[in-house]
Amino acid sequence: MSSKKTCALLLFSGGLDSIIAAKVLQNAGCEVTALTFETPFFNAKKARESAKSLGIEIIVRDISAVHFKLLRDPPHGFGKNLNPCIDCHGLMFRLAGEIAGLDSKLENSSKLNFQIIASGEVLGQRPFSQNKQALGIVEKIAGVEILRPLSAKNLPETFYERENLISREQLLDLSGRTRKPQIALAAEWGIEYFPAPAGGCLLTDPAYSARLKKLLERDSGTDFNEAELLKVGRFFLVGERSFVMIGRDEAENEQLQSLAKSQMLRRGVSALIKMQDFAGPTALLVLKKPDDFEEIFPKITEKIKNYGKDSKNYEGEIEWNVERKT
């Protein structure tokens, strides 16, 4: 092994597996930099917190546009819901390879010269995307070799090991869905902070996936900004290609108002609709055909009225506050 530290770029979710992977690489003598990506379907919050607890640098990249393009027609299909895991992982590792080759342009980096691209994946932990065949497909898509330090001894030897950039003997042989070995290692190494396991990608959520699928099937022009809106409130398709989100509580009402004021709505017309004299839901309408507003408006206001506690059974005329954005 060279006396010079090997620099590893680790795809990092911030979960227990990626934390243990970082420690394995560090124990093997590597300088570790975390890399995480953001889209409307997953964010870097957990990764930032975990990287801070480990004292390692983190690089965050927003890949919403390129990821949403992939989501429309993933070559290797979807998982149980709308999650294109194999192609998504391949995209991330391809981008990691590009970043590793452009180290001098990294923001907030130490301008490291990365020799290893690594991941906290565990062989067999996810049947669809982490079996041996899927891991091989991901490498082929990415066009880079990937070191998986948690399962390396169960996988073919990598270029990194053959070139003595890292010792195979210091890597692990984990496999399967149990997290007991990782939890034991965390205790042994004094790792006190690691997030509880939770669904990190919204595309694995059945309810959200059903919403997005309906929207994609009805409107080929749907973009990632609109996918962001689908996370807030009740979802209804209206008109030919439009949809409306109706807040379920005060927090969601405030979120919808904030989204309406942002630059998120870039196509068509948006309208923020709420009752003037009654407390109740706020609705955000995304209208793809502006001429449909007069036809759609009464249908939306009836829904809003029916979700209001005091307005539900009110028979009189209701005044509406409508803010339109074009």
Descriptive account of the structure:
With 326 residues, the protein is α/β, with parallel strands linked by helices. It has two domains: 6-188, HUPs (Rossmann fold, 3-Layer(aba) Sandwich); 205-325, no CATH class. The chain is 36% helix and 16% strand. The protein has helices at 16-27, 45-54, 64-72, 85-101, 132-142, 159-162, 180-188, 206-218, 224-229, 250-261, 293-307; strands at residues 6-11, 30-38, 57-62, 116-119, 234-238, 242-246, 269-275, 283-287, 320-325. Helix 4 crosses helix 5. The longest helix is centred in the N-terminal third of the chain and has 17 residues, at 85-101. The model is unreliable at 102-111 (pLDDT under 50).
Helices and strands in order:
Blueprint: E1 6-11, H1 16-27, E2 30-38, H2 45-54, E3 57-62, H3 64-72, H4 85-101, E4 116-119, H5 132-142, H6 159-162, H7 180-188, H8 206-218, H9 224-229, E5 234-238, E6 242-246, H10 250-261, E7 269-275, E8 283-287, H11 293-307, E9 320-325
Parallel strand pairs: 1-2, 1-4, 2-3
Antiparallel strand pairs: 5-6, 6-8, 7-8, 7-9
